[in-house]
Amino acid sequence: MRPVAIVGGGLAGIAAAVALGEAGLPVTLYEARPRLGGATHSFPRDGLTVDNGQHVFLRCCTAYRGLLGRIAAPGDVHLQDRFDVRVLTPSGRAGRLRRAVLPGPFHLAPAIAAYGILRPADRLRALRASVALTRLDPSDPALDRVTLGAWLAGHGQRARAREALWDLFTVAALNVPSEEASLAPAVKVFRTALLGRAGAADIGVPAVPLGELHGTRAMAAIAARGGEVRLSAKVTAVEPGLALVVGGERVAASAVIVATPHEQAAKLTPHEAAPDRDDWHGLGASPIVNVHAVFDRRITDLPFAAVVDSPVQWIFDKTRAAGLTRGQYLAVSVSAAARWIDAPVAKLQAEFVPALEQLFPARRDARLVDFFVTRERRATFRQSPGSGSLRPRAATRWPGLYLAGAWTNTGWPDTMEGAVRSGLDAARLVRRHLRQWVPS
């Protein structure tokens, strides 16, 4: 049998390759870059291994956790025993959102009721809005025509509540401000994670560099299942007969999965297979900026924290994962970062270093050893109203040609979980296709 060809070595392509390998099918994965991992990767800098950005997962991310069980080693990730987020402000007033030992969706009610960053009246309104959210169906097409911000405002959520509570999670999960975010994926986030089963929102973070987790480990897992990975192998076309053009060479396949970002997928997928391919460009893109600061000493003992009233959104301690043996390395993740994406490094340093000093007074006694910025201009598609209707399903009109990627219609936002689910869905369709078309 000819191998199944997978175009794209991000999480969608990796998940599909591992699943097909476990099914005993030959696989060749083509990746244009010299590494696997897609939007999640690492690079060396002054003796450290730096992730391009901070990526987290939740306990409810069952597909991604299942992939980790196949490619990762024990200790490669850390998952909270109980959802617990410290929320910091420059004024020194802090909050804490920690789930109680209660069944969902009541497990966060005590934390919201005691959330001191909001006034008591806003906390009560937030609890009422939470109940209303649980009654919404994220698959309802009508929700994709409404913004989350408009819905929250209509349910008594004043600007302060949106900034200090709701945006903590929706901006990070959807990579757009609440006033521009589609209500549909926001409801998916809240109903599945924060308002679902009690442990669903427990936060997981990588304990090793992403290049090791999604690169080295994934490469070994695919090879162990009989698959082949071809790096620096750019696919320029998918042709009739399920053939790829790779570096000018035509390679036949038994099935093809296009697991690239939507812009590349639109170029590769023939119009006859996907007449709506030109519509995919309407998904657009939303940027993420990551600010990296290395100090000569520790300035906080928190593994991570959320922040309000500051340009800082989320902070992660990357000291150990990056291999730093002295001092502390903090990464600041800024989603919906249109304001910062083109700002010079000097301007970002002038804004974010004083912001960190406000949050952590110990910073005043610490020396800044290094400061740098990583930018993901097209980190996710723009999850605004109408985007849901543009997301295609995995199957195309050509038997044997399938799509994968977090931008496809997975039922999830553009996340690592969505990417893995798309790869598994495409792999399932490939198996069904081959059972139908290939003699036993």
Automatic annotation (TrEMBL):
Keyword Oxidoreductase recorded: yes
Cofactor field: FAD
Keywords noted in UniProt: Oxidoreductase
GO MF term set: oxidoreductase activity
Entry keyword annotation includes Oxidoreductase: yes
Record-listed FAD binding positions: E31, A32, V235
InterPro entries: Amino_oxidase, FAD/NAD-bd_sf, Flavin_amine_oxidase, SQase_HpnE, Zeta_carotene_desat/Oxidored
Pfam family of the protein (one): Amino_oxidase
Record domain Amine oxidase: where: 11-430
Annotated coiled-coil segments of the chain: none
Record PANTHER family: BLR3003 PROTEIN, PROTOPORPHYRINOGEN OXIDASE
Database matches in NCBIfam families: HpnE
Protein name: Squalene-associated FAD-dependent desaturase
Organism of provenance: Sphaerisporangium krabiense
